[in-house]
Specification:
The structure holds two protein chains of two kinds.
Chain A (H helix, E strand, L loop, with lengths): L1 H7 E15 L6 H6 L6 E15 L3 E5 L6 H9 L6 E6 L3 E4 L12 H11 L4 H15 L14 H13 L5 E5 L7 H16 L3 E5 L3 H7 L2 E6 L2 E7 H12 L1
Parallel strand pairs in A: 3-7, 3-8, 5-6, 6-7
Antiparallel strand pairs in A: 1-2, 1-4, 8-9
Helix pairs in contact in A: 4-5, 4-6, 5-6
Chain B lengths: L1 H6 L1 H15 L9 H20 L7 H23 L1 H4 L1 H4 L8 H27 L11 H25 L3 H14 L15 H6 L1 H15 L5 H26 L2 H4 L1
The chains are: A alpha/beta, B mainly alpha.
Chain lengths: 248, 255
């Protein structure tokens, strides 16, 4: 049972709650810790409460909800950047997160060097990157700029390079946070087409987005997060419809 | 743990080379600074000590170079290692990767620097006329002990520094104190016998003495002492790793 479940699902969110500590004056130094010991005003902010979610392999899921409902926190928990307060999350398969593009780009290194560095953060070996580097450069459409330092790039070029790396690492699970708006219309269309292609090739995709239009086209399943709880989980059309009735 | 580190070996590799190349980026001498610095330090001590303290140690410059180079490895690893998590906060908050990679790459890039600087030791040994003995074969064992000890310490200091930023300053102070509590500028038999136990509590004493044994005195290192220090270092590494793993879960939120 346990084994079968593990193989069938890409992500299992098991009764997860997350709360953040909110300090008014965060004691960062030893002096503050000693002087204000036990006196620091500390509040807890419950972001997620008893979330249960099972995402099958090959499924594409959209997390929707208003700002501050906890969607992005849930996504961060799935990538293991932060850890749940209670409950656990199991992921099964190689995972890439496109939470913030270009994290870890080094401004003095060239685009090509940054491809190697960035892809290695996603856990690729040099040989694997060698295979993909041309695809990444082609996809980014940076041409000869690829050998200039990244600090000379415009913000659009920067994002294009970052997106190209993230999308070409061949992960089985893709976690995407509101980044369907990269570059100009042409590049956006291209990204969207690439995501669709990945979806067709049976990758598991989880997207957080407010652009309900494209999301409906890309995803089959919608999960509406409301005040830290799952309010509705089902076919994307139905979920978006109900969501718009309340929040539209 | 090892499987995951193996999967991320490319990240470890590129991080180590970034550490070596990036540190002196923009400076005129570049990477050479990691060798010029200890040499300049040696020069100062070599002028000051024989002059003021009337030290009678033969080949005094070689005597201290052998100790200062491993010491430089130690201090640079501790000072860079302690804030490596804080410095890399931006990326820790955005991407997942095994966090242990950061301390490991600091200690490893230090190792590479040290191995290269062993050439300096070799040059001094040749020109002072001391030469080499077959005891040099113990070098890997001593280096390994120092590596394990430092990795363990950096696991502890880097993860604590995230929660208490003072750690950096406190540790830098302790390190500069330990400099005088380690037989670097003097030989350990010069230490007052009454408090020599204090000197022996410091695992670096045995490590530095062992380097000196194989290079300078050309004798066997004290294997009992080295064995104990090796065991203690492994223990520190194990404890350090546990602490790191425990504190790691809060990194993204505390930074």
């Amino acid at each position: 049972m346990e084994k079968k479940e593990k193989n069938e699902y890409a992500i299992i969110v098991d009764n997860v709650s997350k709360r953040f500590k909110i300090y008014y004056d965060k004691p960062n130094t030893l002096k503050e810790r000693l002087v204000f010991w036990n006196k620091t005003k500390l509040n807890y902010h419950q972001v997620l409460e008893n979330i249960n979610l099972k995402i099958k392999k090959g499924e594409s899921v959209a997390l929707i909800g208003v700002n501050g409902s906890g969607k992005s926190t849930l996504l961060k928990l799935m990538t293991k950047i932060i850890y749940p307060t209670t409950g656990k999350i199991i992921t099964n398969g190689k995972l890439t997160s496109l939470l913030e593009l270009g994290a870890g780009f080094h401004p003095d290194f060239t685009g090509r060097e940054n491809i190697y560095f960035n892809a290695s953060i996603f856990g690729l070996t040099a040989a694997e990157i060698d295979e993909r580097v041309q695809d990444i450069i082609d996809f980014s459409e940076l041409g000869e700029f690829i050998d200039s330092p990244v600090r000379t790039y415009s913000s659009g070029m920067y994002m294009r390079l970052a997106f190209s790396v993230a999308i070409n690492v061949d992960a089985e699970i893709l976690l995407i946070d509101e980044i369907l708006a990269v570059g100009d219309q042409h590049f956006q269309d291209k990204c969207f087409a690439k995501l669709k292609e990945l979806k067709e090739s049976d990758k598991t995709i989880v997207i957080v987005s407010h652009s309900l239009g494209p999301v409906q086209e890309l995803c089959d399943r919608g999960v509406w997060i409301y005040e830290g709880k799952v309010r509705e989980d089902g076919k994307i059309k139905k979920v978006v419809e109900d969501y718009l009735k309340v929040c539209g | 743990m090892f499987k995951e580190l193996y999967n991320y070996r490319q990240l470890l590799k590129s991080n180590v080379s970034k550490e070596i190349r990036g540190k002196y980026k923009g400076s005129f001498l570049g990477v050479l600074w990691s060798f010029v610095n200890p040499l300049l330090m040696t020069l100062v001590y070599a002028i000051v000590f024989p002059f003021i303290l009337k030290s009678t140690q033969p080949h005094y410059v070689t005597f201290i170079v052998i100790a200062i180079l491993p010491w430089t490895w130690f201090t640079s690893v501790i000072s860079q290692g302690t804030n490596t998590i804080v410095v890399n906060g931006g990326i820790i908050k955005k991407v997942y990767f095994p966090r242990e990679i950061l301390p490991i790459s600091i200690v490893t890039s230090g190792l590479i620097n040290f191995l290269i600087s062993c050439l300096i030791i070799a040059i001094f040994l040749i020109f002072s006329g001391i030469g080499f003995s077959w005891y040099v074969i113990f070098l890997p064992l001593i280096v390994l002990t120092q590596y394990i000890l430092q990795l363990g310490l950096v696991f502890i200091t880097s993860s604590i520094d995230v929660y208490i930023r003072d750690a950096e300053y406190i540790i830098n102070f302790i390190v500069s104190m330990v400099f005088y509590g380690t037989p670097i500028l003097y030989s350990s038999d010069l230490f007052p016998a009454k408090i020599s136990w204090l000197l022996n509590l410091n695992p670096l004493t045995t490590i530095i003495e062992s380097y000196r044994n194989i290079f300078y005195y050309q004798t066997m290192p004290n294997m009992t002492a080295l064995g104990i220090v090796f065991a203690v270092s492994c223990l520190i590494l194990w404890i350090g790793y546990k602490i790191f793993k425990k504190l790691e879960k809060g990194f993204a939120e505390e930074l």
